[in-house]
Amino acid sequence: MLTNLTQQPPDKILELTRLFREDPREAKIDLGVGVYKNAEGVTPVMRAVKAAERQLVESQDSKSYTSLAGDPAYTSALRRLILADAVDAERVAAAATPGGTGAIRQGMELIQYADRGATVWVSTPTWPNHLTIINYLGVPMREYRYFDSATRAVDFDGMMADLAEVKSGDVVLLHGCCHNPTGANLTLEEWQVVADHLLAKGAVPFIDIAYQGFGDGLEEDAQGVRLLASQMPEMLIAASCSKNFGVYRERTGMLMAIAPEAKSQGDAQKTLAFLNRQNFSFPPDHGARVVQTILDDATLCADWKAELEDVRVGMLALREQLAQELRQRSNSERFDFIATHRGMFSRIGATPEQVLAMREQHGVYMVGDSRMNIAGLNAATVPVLAQAIVDVGV
């Protein structure tokens, strides 16, 4: 059996991480892997997370299972953070998952379980794991235009032209905020146009929200999701706590399914529990319990929000600094889009050859499509990156 297996292609980002690690140069910059790092290059444990973990050590008296859908206190707390009062809680089914990736996988499983003929529409480009999960499960898929490589902004006209072909029952995968890999986001007015269109078509939105709080703020980053939730009869939401709580290795995520009414919510809730049972049985609890502890404690929550805001403002400052450095070095405004993008990522428009040249000549590591992780920079390395971009002729 095992001799019949074919070698799988290496993950491009993990391969880039390996190359960076093996590079002997001290002056090298890792802008590849999508993990937040502070100015010292460390992915820190947030203050509120440490405090919540201390509370759990003292108070937790069992490591027994919670439930197939996870602890209801966790799913309720995270639902309130994302949706607030945009939709009646009685319409929302929710299940804890192993990270946001697990939520995406469970969402695709749910789509297949409900309707194997449904097509899932994904943006071009999108997070690579979206595509690999969809293809692995054999879900019908089509793409819609999203990013204008000339303006480095959302190609909204192209997006809506492509989505004109969406059929009733199809699923449209959207990034809730801080689009990965481009950093270009829909405006609230554009979210409304999307909502009107999907309603008219009878299509179902599937929102991947992995960076709430990294863009324009916790409330602002949820506006598009809440707008859709308040207007759509059905909707799926995959959420991740890896970034905004910094609990990457704890694999803390959740899938929500908004149903038309309370009766179908009950069926959806049972189905989410069933799917969890088939894939991994009970979801991990430690990260979920940490998140729930923080969200349900006023003092911890306030401290978490303050630290998260520092992270967000710090990334915006790096964007502004990089845009200014590039404006000076290129004597043009063609890189100003970097300051308007949000979240950890931006696509700068370099060719694969230019990306390779930056790596070989300047020790700057980014993904081949020129997606760079802004959080991999600090005030001292921004000028180095700016010079590398200009030197290779981007």
Secondary-structure map:
Layout lengths: L11 H11 L6 E2 L16 H13 L12 H12 L8 E7 H16 L5 E5 L3 H10 L3 E5 L1 E2 L4 E2 L1 H8 L7 E5 L12 H14 L2 E6 L8 H4 L1 H9 L3 E6 L11 E7 L3 H18 L6 H10 L2 H33 L6 H4 L4 E3 L4 H11 L1 E2 L5 E3 L8 H10 L3
Parallel strand pairs: 1-12, 3-4, 3-7, 7-8, 8-9
Antiparallel strand pairs: 2-10, 5-6, 9-10, 11-13
Helix pairs in contact: 2-11, 2-12, 3-11, 4-5, 7-9, 12-15, 14-15
Summed up:
This protein is 46% helix and 14% strand.
**Tally of discrete structural domains:** 2
Record field, number of beta strands? 13
Approximate helicity band: 40-55%
Superfamily (CATH H level) name of the largest domain: Type I PLP-dependent aspartate aminotransferase-like (Major domain)
List low-confidence stretches: none
How many angstroms separate the termini? 48 Å
How large is the count of helical segments?
15
What structural class do helix, strand and pairing data support? Answer: alpha/beta
Architecture overview:
The chain is α/β, with parallel strands linked by helices and 394 residues long. The protein has helices at 12-22, 47-59, 72-83, 99-114, 128-137, 156-163, 188-201, 218-221, 223-231, 262-279, 286-295, 298-330, 337-340, 352-362, 382-391; strands at 29-30, 92-98, 120-124, 141-145, 147-148, 153-154, 171-175, 204-209, 235-240, 252-258, 345-347, 364-365, 371-373. Helix 12 packs parallel to helix 15 (382-391). The chain is globular, with a radius of gyration of 21 Å. It starts with 11 loop residues before the first helix and ends with a helix.
